[in-house]
Amino acid sequence: MIKLIIKFIEKQAGDNLRCPYCNSEDSRVLESRAAEEGKSVRRRRECIKCLRRFTTFEYVEMVPLLVIKRDGSREIFSRKKLLEGILKACEKRPVPIEEIEKLVNKIELYFQNSSEKEIPSGFIGEKVMDELKYLDEVAYIRFASIYREFKDINSFMEEAKKFLGEIKN
């Protein structure tokens, strides 16, 4: 289950939702609608005390994922790094950027929906390879060659044979 934190972003600074005119904490919602392509909720409010109207935006903030690197260090999950790695594997391949973005979204959502908030980098690499198999075979082999750190042609051929066996089944 995703842990969500609702955060009110106001036009003025402060921890509580307050009327920007009289500073009262009492308001009522007049209208709500999706904003920013569904990434936030725009609420039109009216202050109970001064009867003036103002707008607030409500955003969903995800709990950040931590990646446990091979050396044991931790860093915040980077969508940008994931995208760059997949783009590199798909370089000069007939894979539309929209498909790559869908793949990145799918992988990020997969880990956001997991109960774990600290994910070993190896799990991320394996998930990318699982998804690349179906997107582009050459991109899969390229990504695997860097991720698995092939030492020689034999280790490369073993991975290629394993991949071909999975495709036939």
User: Count of helices?
Assistant: 5
Structure classification: alpha+beta
State the separation between the terminal residues, measured CA to CA: 33 Å
Any idea what the shape is?
elongated
Q: Strand arrangement, largest sheet?
A: 1-4-3-2
- The portion of residues assigned to helices is 40-55%
User: How large is the radius of gyration?
Assistant: 23 Å
Tell me, rounded to a whole number, the average pLDDT: 82
The parts where pLDDT drops under 50 for at least 5 residues are 1-15
User: Main sheet, how many strands, which sense, barrel?
Assistant: 4 strands, antiparallel
Quick one: how many beta strands? 7
**Topology as a string of helices (H) and strands (E):** EEEEEEHHEHHH
Number of domains: 2
The fraction of residues assigned to DSSP E strands is: 15-25%
Oligomer status: single chain
Tell me briefly what this model is.
With 169 residues, the chain is α+β, with helices and mostly antiparallel strands. 41% of the residues lie in helices and 25% in strands. It contains five helices and seven strands.
Provide the fold topology.
Layout: E1 4-9, E2 27-35, E3 40-47, E4 53-62, E5 66-68, E6 74-76, H1 79-89, H2 97-113, E7 118-120, H3 121-135, H4 137-147, H5 153-168
Parallel strand pairs: 5-7
Antiparallel strand pairs: 1-4, 2-3, 3-4, 5-6
Helix pairs in contact: 1-2, 1-4, 2-3, 3-4
What does this structure look like?
The chain has 169 residues and is α+β, with helices and mostly antiparallel strands. It contains 5 helices and 7 strands, in the order E-E-E-E-E-E-H-H-E-H-H-H. The chain starts with a strand and ends with a helix. A hairpin with a 5-residue loop joins strand 5 and strand 6. The strands form 2 sheets. It has a 4-stranded antiparallel β-sheet with strand order 1-4-3-2, with no helix packed on it. It is elongated.
